[in-house]
Structures are given as C-alpha cells and as structure tokens.
Structure prediction request, 346 residues.
Amino acid sequence: MEITKKDILSVPKSELHCHLDGSVRINTIIDIAREYKIDLPSYEANDLEKNLICGRKVLDLVEYLDAFRMTLSVMQEKESLERVAFELAEDAALENLWYLEVRFSPILHSNKGLSYEEIVESVLRGFEKAQQKYKIKVGLIICAMRQKSVDEALVMADLCIKYRDKGVVAFDLAGPEAGNPAKKYRKAFAVVRKNLINRTIHAGEAFGAKSIFQAIELGAQRIGHGITLLEDEKLSKYINDHRIALEVCLKCNTQTGIPLEKHPLPEFIKQGLCVTLNTDNRLMSATTLTDEYLLAIETYSLNWNDVKQLTLNSFSSAFLPFSEKQVMLSELQKFWEEKAPDVLGD
Prediction:
C-alpha cells in the first residue's frame, strides 16, 4: 500500500533532534535583518536560500555548519529569539507533531550582550506561546559546543540545572567532532549527571564509532546521529540492549557525506535498534519531519509497521516526565489501533 504525504501528516509524530538556529523561516531572517539593519547577501527569499544551502550537497560537516553564521546574526535579540522559537514550534504543530525537542547553545546568541538567562527565557516564551495555541509540547535542550572551552561547557551545564522543570529537558554536546573529543568535557557531564539532568550527545556523525563510545562513557541516554555505530559490533549490541536511542537525521546526513544507498538506517531498523527520525536543521536541509519519513519510506521501502515503530521509538525516547509520556503513548497506541485494520494487517 502506497504511503502518501497526506498519510504521514495524519500520523502523530515526535521529534527529538532539531536545532533552533538551523530551523528559521527564510522570510523571518529577512524581516529581522531589515529591522535591525543586519547585512545579508540578499533580501530576496529565493536568492537567500542559495546562501543557506537548503538542500545543496556540501563538502563536509564543517562547510554545512558555516551557513549558521547567517541565521545566528538575526538571533541576537530577545524579540527575535522569541519569534523564531514560536514559529518553529508552530511549523512542527502544523505537521501534527505532538512533541518536539529543540536544541541550541545560548553561547551563540550573546553577541549583543544578552545574558544567558535572557536568551533561554526568550526561547521558552516563544515555545509557551505556541503551546497555548497548538496541541504541541516543546522541550528545550541546552548545548555545550565542542569548539568552545571547558569552562563555557560548565556554564551551559549550570543553565540546564537552573531551568530544569521550567522547560529545559536535557544537556547536549554539539559542534565538529574531529579534534574535539567529548571526553574533554567530562566535568560538565559530571555536573549534569550529579544533578540528574538528561543527556544526549552528538556523536558518530562525522567521526567513527569511538566518538559514540565516548558519548556512552559520559552517560549519554541518546546519541545524536550515530551513523558510524555499525563499525563496532560490541558497541552496537550494547546500545541496542540498553535501548539507547539514535537520533537519525537522514537528509542532513546525506548532505554531509553519506549517500542514501549507504546510510545505515535500514540496517538499524533491521537490527531492531531504537532509531528515530528527525530533521536536524529544517532550513539548511530544506526539510520537515514529514519529508524525513517520506524520504525513508521511498528510499528503503518502509511499510506501515516500520512507520509505527519509528513513531513509538521517538515518543518512548522523549525526555518527558513518565506520566506525560504514558499519556502520549496511550493516545498514539489508540491512533494505531484505529488505523490497524486498514494498513497494519492482523
């Protein structure tokens, strides 16, 4: 049975790996740039898209990340941060996401003197407005950056503690893996672990399975990307046995060097790993979560049972309070039970 875009839009979805500064609307970038007199290569949407990659294959992860300088330039004011946060949550809600986790690093939004607290609170206000308007729950993940200092990572860890139970759900380590091993930031992870903060780490995106192993050593409960995992059979088995979720971002991975035909996603699914689908950067990759599902379905001939399992994996791996997660999973199960006679078979 063919699975259409309309079908996937109807499915309740959850996304666990989405960057705020990589998911800004083009017209919003232009509006903010004009308001604050920020230079852009172009103020025409079609031309600006070419400078922000938007689906173009790049040489490597470093080049891909270079496009963020432009979006960050328009995300240095409280009002701008609030607007971008609201619009991202709105976009997600309109494609039937019930839950969304968004990650960002306040370090990157302080160029005009905003305090880290002002930055976090601005983003949380945007999410709260979206949650009041739509059926969506949004959690914020604060990132330390691999290319920044250990001291800055410790400050980000303290921010997680300060805003836990106020909208912040986890701590992350992002940025270029090569030359920036996760173990360098062990002090920051010791702090968040001591304070029982959830942890996800970018690993195995542009570096080998050793990077994923370090993430596990630091106590990662989920792995951002993890596409090099199959290089290490023992590690793969450990991650599978402990149901450590893999936050796969299919389109982004193909842009940064992994051809679709060589992507490990179908093997992850075959082995029963707790794999989830995500957008990573909706703008830079010109994608939505619906698009990610459709790309996986069309490329790897996934069926409705695969789609069901991917949605269950995502909700099950969310950094949500257990009681809230159970409610969402119960509603999701009801959706699939109602759909089962038509698409899932006996």
